[in-house]
Design brief:
The chain is an alpha/beta fold. The protein has nine helices and twelve strands. The protein folds into two domains: 38 residues; 281 residues, Alpha/Beta hydrolase fold, catalytic domain (Rossmann fold, 3-Layer(aba) Sandwich). 37% of the residues lie in helices and 17% in strands. It has an eight-stranded mixed beta sheet with strand order 1-2-4-3-7-8-9-10, with helices on both faces. A two-stranded antiparallel sheet has the order 5-6. A two-stranded antiparallel sheet has the order 11-12.
Length: 341
Amino acid sequence: MKKLPRRKYPKKSSLRYIYKFEELKVRYNTKKIFFILLSVFGIGSSIYWYLGMAPTPKLDTAVAIAPDIKLSYQIQSYTSSVMGGQRTYGVSLPPNYGQNPQQRYPVIFLLHGGNGRPTDWFKKGLALSVIEQLYATGKLPYSIIITPDGNDKRGASPFYDPQYIDGVNGRVNTAVGNELVRVIKSRYSTLPTAKFWAIGGLSSGGWGALNIGLHNPQNFSVMFSHSGYFRDRSGARNSPVTYIKRISKAKRQQFRIYLDAGDEDGKFLQQTKEFAQVLKTLKIPYEFNQFPGGHTLIGPDSLWNYWHKHLADSLTYVGTQFQNASPVETVGPPNPWIKNN
């Protein structure tokens, strides 16, 4: 009988190395899978964060206290020589607009944030329900509400913020802060002076509102920011925390500024506090509030829930500044109207 060759088995020491090698492979693959999942989650969260945060969250239901005040909005366009081509904006007119041809109104610009559009404040922020309540309670004089297109020539994107500056991607600061102002004055019955013009926004739109307002003091005196930042990568000229110090004291005296940020706003909260301290040092009238929530993905005060809720705070401040700027009279209760100026 033919003798079969003896089968060779690995030595125990060799088996130990083989087992360790296989164990390392398993550990490596597990870590690799974990980091891939973590990266996907991080990218997804970032995209969600910048998308402004769609889908639109469930917002607080408006209290039905103004049954006779129902606002609407339209999207209009104009030819921009500054940006080259057609630009759009949203507009909501006061309830009685056009009934008295002599009546003129204050103007409020609301700027969108990252990957935003002129419809954001109306569709995602449900701004009109907030404004209706403020009209009904007399906290905000009837005003012309404008939501500009703040995007530069690159368009809206979840991967970068709009540049509310005059830069290589377009002169957005001039387009919104000067050109669009002239368009609005030519099309609607506006009060002409800066003390009846306000500009505000959320997140990058909060920074944009202050940047545009400070560069155009001839057009705006009231500014407000929700969850905004105040240092821009483009430099000191477009960083309100430093640029405001360059403005003459005479021009600074006209400014009235509202700021708020949430506990979850991180560096935006810190920069808002820093800017508030600068305003205090320069003796510029301002109001600062810190609220729960902000730039967070979960909770009742996240993203649009936060901005919807606290739009009432900023516009109440705006209304007070409008009313303090000129004697008021009551025409048709309960809203105080500003006399022609």
